[in-house]
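3.2 Worked example (two chains)
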Amino acid sequence: MNVNDYNRIDAGLVAGVGLDIDNITMGLRYNLGLTKVGKSQSFLGTSYTISDSKNAVISFYLSVSFI
């Protein structure tokens, strides 16, 4: 794996919902990458992008406050 084949910076959008009940907080969040992960490469005269993929993450969080 060569780090030069991948972009170092990613831009994206985030959306989520949260709920607070007494001392408990929970939520769900979705992160959508807007930039491609891989850089354009050339092989035997054909240009392509590695995986042509973007980042996407779904996260769930839960916290309890003791104060």
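3.2.1 Second chain
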Amino acid sequence: MIPPDPTPSNAPCARPPSQAQAAYAQESAKARQDQQIVNYLPLVRHIVQKVAAHVGNRVDPDELISAGTLGLVRAARAYKPDRHADFKTYAYIRVRGAVIDELRSRSFVSTSVHRQIRQAREAYQALLAETGKPPDHETVAERSGLSLTAYFRTLEEARRQHFLSIHGLDDESPCLANLIPAETTSPEHEAQKAELVRQLTEAIQELPERDRQVIILYYQRDLTMKEVAEALGVTESRVSQVHAGALFRLSMQLKGG
């Protein structure tokens, strides 16, 4: 006996969307993407402000904003909710990557600053060995043969070069991303990551209070240099000095002096 057809003969058949429906869906998707671009334009400026703080006035911020905006447009067009994280996270990565790519095409490394950075590091190491405790900036500057102003200027250059080198933007250091496998979820990697976080947390806690405040506000609270300056009631140039000095201390502490 042949079983009855479960589908009534008069039931409507599923039909593929018409060209008009497909066009409407495509237009609706583009409208949503355009709205996302408009909504997240302030994110581009925020990222450029953060990046520009590392490279100073060596590049026109408008050029970085243009590159970041293009990255945002590409992010909106490529974003797939079922495949990617939330759009803000996805856009942040793509925009920052576009800005970094723009910097990668430029050369910022000063040849004269390497000697002064080396002098500061050697002075720090010598003073640490002599006293058994991290030296203050004034003592390191004096041992380096630099005025305090020149010393902080050197540290700001070191900060810029560190930022450029970890993104592969100079000729001396490989890009950090090239040193890390795409899939880094092994137990060994997780253990190394946990140990690095522990060491960094301890090093931050050992910083002088003002240095620690700047690091927390800038990195954890994600404020700009100007916003940090307003929060602490100091000038933006002073925040830049403290920031550079704090990163120098952290790098020396994490290297074991």
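3.3 Remarks
Residues 164-184 have pLDDT under 50 and may be disordered.
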